[in-house]
Specification:
- Helix 1 crosses helix 7 and helix 7 packs across helix 8.
- It is built from eight helices and five strands, in the order E-H-E-H-E-H-H-E-H-H-E-H-H.
- The chain has 231 residues and is of the alpha/beta class.
- It has a five-stranded parallel sheet with strand order 3-2-1-4-5, sandwiched between helices.
- It is globular.
Length: 231
């Protein structure tokens, strides 16, 4: 009888990065537990992708946590305002964009940390990366290091000497490198969703920052993006 696999919680949005991160965790032979969020995001379609991907990867369990960040606001993804479109690479990389959701990764990781303690998982995987990251402050290595310290100090598992480990296998990769890694691990990118503002009759707008970074990544990886975009 083989050894029991270590449990890993993977934050799964249904996008390119989180799906590749799920594939990395599977490749490392973890028992997979997927965690997604319905937080009032305008691009709610990502949850449909996340659920399909979870089934495709055969996760042990997939839960969706509901809370409404529209009551707080502070982002065009959870409130009023226009999602920026057709921005240049320089504009995308300059400053913190209006699509930033205040403290979102802190909230997501806190839920993951709580669930990890309940199910006895020793690992949390999150698909942040510090290169093609649209300026979000909670995607940087310094932030992850600080949250790791929080996990060590602020949980029962941590103070008892076996803290949950936060894994960021994509953090130093470009979008192209992430896509290549996912492709090598057998990810079907046609199942993923990246768009911040999808039109009613199309899977993606092709013009928001997330779509543009995705298309740039596929182009630089030398691979075709399997999604259709409006002309």
């Amino acid at each position: 009888m083989g050894a029991e696999r270590e449990k890993a919680i993977v934050l799964l949005s249904g996008g390119v990065d989180s799906t590749t991160c799920l594939a990395v965790a599977r490749n490392e032979a973890h028992a997979l537990y997927a965690l997604s969020f319905r937080y009032g995001q305008r691009h709610l379609r990502e949850l449909d992708a996340a659920m399909r991907i979870g089934v495709h990867f055969g996760v042990e369990r997939h839960i969706v946590v509901d809370f409404d960040m529209r009551t707080i606001g502070g982002s065009v993804l959870t409130g009023e305002g226009e999602v920026p479109k057709d921005r240049s690479e320089g504009e995308i990389g300059e400053g913190i964009p209006v699509t930033y959701v205040p403290a979102r990764n802190t909230i997501f990781l806190s839920f993951a940390l709580s669930w990890a303690e309940v199910i006895g998982a020793r690992n949390i995987f999150i698909g942040v990366n510090a290169l093609d990251f649209s300026g979000y402050p909670d995607c940087r290595p310094e932030y992850i290091q600080a949250f790791q310290r929080t996990a060590e100090l602020g949980t029962k598992a941590g103070v008892e000497g076996h803290p949950v480990q936060i894994h960021t296998p994509l953090i130093h990769l470009s979008k192209a490198e992430i896509i290549r890694k996912g492709y090598d691990l057998g990810v079907d990118f046609s199942m993923t969703h990246s768009c911040y503002d999808p039109p009613p009759d199309w899977p993606a707008c092709g013009r928001c920052d997330s779509c543009l970074l995705r298309q740039k990544g596929f182009s630089e990886a030398g691979l075709a993006d399997p999604l259709d975009y409006p002309d």
